[in-house]
Amino acid sequence: MNLFKIANECIDEAIRAKSFYNRDFASNHEAYGVILEELDELWDEIKKKNPDKEKMRTEATQTAAMLLRFINELT
Question: What confidence score (pLDDT) does residue 67 get?
Fold first, then answer.
């Protein structure tokens, strides 16, 4: 898969999540908490005896999206 396509999927997810909550992170601590929650969900899937590649991809995309959102809010 093309990295540009993957990046666009992450951007689309960041936009979707932003429209769902319709606000910036309340603080850097909240951003960290959201990012950590997404990363923990990815880690939970990774640790399974038979991890689902699609679920890992979804969680990785959501983690990246929250990182992109945080970076965007820092600018």
Answer: 98
